[in-house]
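Handout, tutorial session.
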Amino acid sequence: MIYKHMRSNTIMVIALTLGIAAGSPAQAQIGIFKKEKSAEDTIYHLFLDTVTIEARNLKNYNFNRYEYVVRKVYPLADTATALFYEVNSETATMKRRESKKYRKKMEKELKENFEDRLKNMSRTEGLVLIKIIERNTGMSLYDLLKDVKSGSTAWWWNNLGKMYGYDLKRGYSPSDNPMLEIIIQEYETKKGIQPRKPLQ
């Protein structure tokens, strides 16, 4: 009667543990118990079906995580990109004083639209937001800040970024994170978003 207290869910737990520990597809069996009575004792029979169990690839988590972040921050990045294009277009023929006044106005608009939401972003969300803006403008965030604000402002933010391991002068390169580029392309295709001509 050694099988009397076993349960099919116990077999499932053991099989899953073996599959995960191996780190590769593992064969396991699960099923149900049946019993037969004889003159001497009760005999239990276990009828099993073969199943394949695979350990989850951690890369799937990263992909899903980036996919979620891109869906969340892309609309913000797109709005910011549109404002950068507007600044670039409107100030092209302006005199320096007029341009400065206009840029201050746009800076205020950027703060009103983004400040609260940026404060609540995680580090990953902030970095992806920057990458999408750099990708869609064709400019590094350092050059964008220098253009919209000033060289000293860009320098200050770049030094702050370096404290968190990010160089604002580097700009966007698909080879730095191919997975992120794939996810962005898939998002743009799904939403019917057409790429803009780079600012420079």
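The second record follows below. Compare its token runs with those of the first.
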Amino acid sequence: MKSQIQERTAMRKNETTMPNSLMIVLGVAACSVVFCVVMMRVLITEQTHPAWFWVILAFSVLMFVVLTLGFLPRQEERLADRLSRDSLAVRTTAKVVALDRRGTEEGQTMHRTGLNLTLAVSEPDGSERIARLVVWVEDAVLPNFATGRTVHVLYDPDDPATLAIDRSRSPVQVN
């Protein structure tokens, strides 16, 4: 039993395609600190009112939180990345039974819509089960996730309830 666990852990240690979360947090923290230091230096040299110290400090903390949350990948994206590298992950199809829009997100280069998907997942033994999944999809590929369409999914055989879109077969964004 122990050798199976060690073997499975070794199989999962492939290189990730996602940015390291720690590196994102450290990068954003560095930018926030540089901003704060530059602004504090201006405050000191211009001899402004001491209350501006707290304003700049609060803005730097707010900037850190907002940017960190904006750059960190979502839970489903991290799961999809991990499962795509796992040789033991189950790759199957699922039919979109229902969908509900969560909201939209607009960036410089794309517009994404959050979806609450209800899926009928095809099991390897031929049976089906219902699963729910939250995923953000670029609007250009949104029709591929319409009710009645088939999408490719991944899940861990040890935890079939956790499901992710197989991005190599059902892309969620235009590359």
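Points raised in discussion: The chain has a mean pLDDT of 82.
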